[in-house]
Write a structure and sequence with these properties.
With 788 residues, the chain is of the alpha+beta class. Helix 7 packs across helix 8 (492-499), helix 7 runs parallel beside helix 9 (521-537) and helix 12 (615-630) runs parallel beside helix 13 (668-678). Bound molecules: alpha-L-arabinofuranose. Residues 186, 188, 386-388, 515-516, 549, 603, 641-642, 652 line the site of alpha-L-arabinofuranose (AHR).
Length: 788
């Protein structure tokens, strides 16, 4: 927002207009009744081909219209323009205006010693008082929500261990979603390339480009991660490429046999395990000379060979070649060396190395350890590809699923919104395959025809939409996704799926349209086109709408209003908040209307200052999740975000699972998700917590309980959270539920709030209709017992 200008119209409705940037020919507008609850933004087109700076507005009594004027500045020229409107929805075409007609209505005032340029308005006392009241409210709640365990020694200085009772009543049950815990996958923090995607060669297609990093890294180019040693020269070429989507390749000119080599360093080293086999492949085109031979080696830091193979008789024209390398030693940071043995020029592309041991031994598969760690959560669904990655940061950066399927050399790599490169080797096919392998529902998220609300490039101002002339094609792409996933092999896209190795349908049930977008007219128009088309052609698909990035605010209200109007089955809510927010907002869903859209809490996480992930954040999430289970008749699905982060390559903290090339490091938050994922139920049994005494809100809100039944296994699961610094001795009474005295499993996650390494510990506990359990300070307990 630049140069905001506030104005009150004849009906006393406030309008704010402002400049979006210094290069687009649009300005922005939003209206508000009370200066608190702002309505949606719009982006009126101001003029052709120039920018729109310092917009201002005044009422012209003669014409009974509002005149909007602005500056348009290019090189040394400053022009003035005017447009008129009666309703701030429809605007007359912009006209060049004489400088004298510009009123320059902004004034300069000194606020706290600083000169500020803006507008001055006289308002009634009631307006001032309501603003003060609003700010007081915000101030008060922010204080509460910023509580952390750091102040616990003071806040709870006099608190002694508590004895509480929890009573659950089997007569008060309700059905809840059995899809509550899922995962959110986005290629952020090197989650895909260099992460869970098991490819070991970085920049295998030579498609890295300076624009991946907006030109800010001179070393980020087609030769990134590659080097040359010895008597070989190289060029990066684009003439007669392997495929138009994969234009760059390397050409090696060999001057002496075995005199030099091309080397890839992997994603910060190639981890190799003794005795394991690796599939090597590449495409080669001998441009000059006879048939070519190359030696392919894995080497360590001292250039000692760990594995070696030969590829012989590579010929003219692009052809694929393969070999298997068997490692003689374990080396964490090996390199791949390709040493030509024939004089002449040879072009190489898509140079690839995969461990044979991928998750479920899939070709072009996933890293086994990371995929297994995710599978261990028992997620009921997997969201993909994001997050902001789904809609990109400009029209040119939207994720198009069709670019990510088919032979790897034909896929269309693209700039990753998180400032690196995505090969899309882990594309839609691999994603659906993974869902299949772990028995989770795929939840693909497609852009709603608009890029991210924080778009910085390629859009029109803050939010450009796919031009209407292209929207039909875009809508068709979304419909084609359903055919690709579910269509028979007789259909065009079903056939493509079969060619990739999955003739059976994937049984897609959900599609998310949009990701925390700005809810504007531009958004709404495009969303409705996609939504209506899906409803008409694929009524079997449940569409998930979007209601912005916050738990309140304009996009939240506007998104929900749209969902109400269109009867969208589910909406995607997002909020990253402080532990205090999660502690004090456990009633958030209690009053949600059960007859409206259901909720998919698609992104959430507890954020402390500095963004660590530890027992404190994990327990605040566990506590809030007891309330999510209580409300799982309206909250159908949830996914913590983001999921993965590679150490040293992280753009966002905290994440659920950290990793490097050889280790996987789940966080306490991961164990909370895993405990919920492995102990979910489909029936919620009402329970009450009785603290047996007078305790402050601060104490009461830090104890949580949830009782669910898993009807498939006929087991009862009791979850108990204690976010207090003292032990809580708990008597559990399970009324009207058939529990015989027996031993049950107890999982306990506990530790100091700052503990980042805590693990759940399993033990046995004697249970029955009445039993006792100690909840250590700062702990999460899950008890799972058989029912009769
Ligand atoms: O989870 C990280 C980012 O947070 C997502 O890409 C975006 O949707 C949200 O703002």
């Amino acid at each position: 927002m630049f140069d905001p200008f506030l104005f009150q119209d004849k009906q006393e409705l406030w309008h704010l207009i402002w400049s979006l940037n210094h290069y687009d020919d649009v300005f922005a507008h939003a209206a508000v009744d009370d200066l608190i609850l702002w309505r949606r933004q719009s982006y009126p087109k101001a003029t052709e081909g120039k920018n729109c700076l310092m917009p201002e507005v005044y009422y012209n009594a003669k014409t009974d219209k509002y005149n909007i004027t602005w500056l348009s500045v290019s090189d040394n020229d400053t022009s003035y323009y005017t447009s008129t409107t009666s309703d701030f929805k429809n605007y007359s075409p912009a006209k060049k205006t004489a400088i004298e007609e510009r009123k320059n209505l902004r004034q300069t005032v000194e606020i706290k010693g600083k000169q500020e340029l803006g507008t001055i308005h006289k308002v009634g006392r009631d307006v001032v008082e309501s603003l003060i009241a609003e700010y007081d409210k915000i101030d008060k709640r922010n204080k509460l929500w910023s509580e952390t365990t750091k102040e616990d020694p003071i806040r709870f200085a006099d608190l002694k261990p508590l004895s509480i009772s929890i009573t659950a009543d089997g007569n008060e049950q309700k059905q809840i979603s059995d899809q509550l815990i899922g995962i959110f996958f986005e290629d952020i923090n090197y989650a895909a390339d260099g992460g869970i995607y098991a490819e070991l060669i970085e920049n295998r297609g030579f498609e890295y480009h300076p624009s991946d990093k907006k030109g800010r890294d001179p070393n980020w180019n087609s030769f990134k991660a590659w080097s040359i040693s010895g008597d070989v020269t190289h060029t990066i070429d684009t003439v007669s490429p392997l495929h138009p989507n994969n234009r760059h390749y390397v050409s090696l000119t060999v001057k002496s046999k075995g005199g030099g080599s091309l080397i890839n360093e992997g994603f910060n080293g190639i981890p190799i395990k003794a005795g394991e086999k690796y599939n090597f492949s590449l495409f080669a085109n001998v441009k000059e000379g006879k048939k070519a031979n190359v030696i392919v080696r894995l080497i360590d830091g001292q250039n000692n060979t760990i594995a070696e193979t030969k590829i012989k008789k590579m010929s003219a024209g692009w052809n694929p070649y393969k070999a298997v390398l068997t490692a003689s030693r374990t080396v964490d940071n090996a390199r791949l060396e390709i040493a030509p043995q024939t004089l002449g020029e040879v072009a190489l592309d898509m140079i690839s190395l995969f461990p044979q041991k991928t998750f479920k031994e899939r070709k072009n598969g996933l890293r086994d350890d990371l995929a297994q760690t995710i599978a261990d959560i028992h997620p009921k669904f997997v969201r993909f590809p994001g997050g902001c990655l789904a809609h990109g940061d400009g029209l040119g950066n939207i994720y198009h699923w069709k670019n990510t399927i088919g032979p790897l050399e034909e896929r269309k790599p693209q700039r990753n919104i998180w400032n690196y490169h995505q090969s899309v080797g882990l594309g839609y096919f691999e994603y659906f395959q993974f869902c299949d392998d772990i028995n989770a529902e795929p939840i693909p998220i497609v852009a709603a025809g608009v890029p991210c609300q924080n778009s910085s490039c390629g859009g029109a101002g803050q939010q450009g939409g796919i031009p209407m002339s292209e929207m039909d094609n875009y809508v068709q792409d979304v419909l084609d996704l359903v055919e690709w996933a579910n269509g028979s092999t007789e259909t065009y896209w079903g056939q493509k799926r079969a060619e990739a190795g999955h003739p059976e349908p994937f049984n897609l049930k959900y599609i998310g349209v949009g990701n925390e977008d700005l809810i504007t007219d531009i958004f709404e128009e495009r969303f409705i086109m996609i939504y209506d088309a899906l409803k008409e052609k694929h009524p079997e698909i449940t569409v998930i709408g979007t209601v912005g990035p916050w738990f309140e605010g304009t996009d939240y209200r506007e998104g929900w209003a749209l969902a109400d109007r269109l009867n969208i089955p589910i909406v995607d809510e997002h909020y990253y908040q402080s532990p205090g927010w999660f502690i004090y907002n456990q009633e958030y869903y209690d009053d949600y209307d059960r007859n409206k859209s259901k909720v998919y809490l698609g992104e959430y996480a507890s954020h402390l200052p500095g963004r660590p992930t530890n027992i404190e954040t994990a327990l605040s999430e566990a506590l809030y999740m007891t309330a999510l289970e209580r409300n799982a008749d309206v909250v159908e699905m949830t996914s913590y975000a983001p999921l993965l982060a590679k150490e040293g390559f992280t753009q966002w903290n905290p994440d659920l699972i950290y990793f490097n090339n050889t280790e996987v490091k789940p966080t306490p938050g991961y164990y909370v998700q895993k405990l919920y994922g492995n102990n979910s139920g489909d029936q919620y049994i009402s329970s009450q917590i009785d603290l047996n005494g007078e305790y402050s809100d601060a104490v009461q809100k830090r104890i949580g309980a949830s009782v669910v039944r898993d009807s498939k296994t006929n087991e009862l699961i009791v979850k108990l959270v204690n976010l207090l610094p003292v032990e809580v001795n708990t008597g559990v009474a399970l009324q009207n539920l058939k529990i015989s005295p027996a031993t049950a499993t107890r999982s306990l996650l506990a530790g100091h709030p700052e503990d980042k390494e805590a693990l759940p510990v399993k033990s046995e506990i004697t249970v029955g209709n009445n039993f006792k359990v100690e909840l250590p300070a700062y702990s999460f307990t899950v008890i799972r017992m058989k029912m009769e």
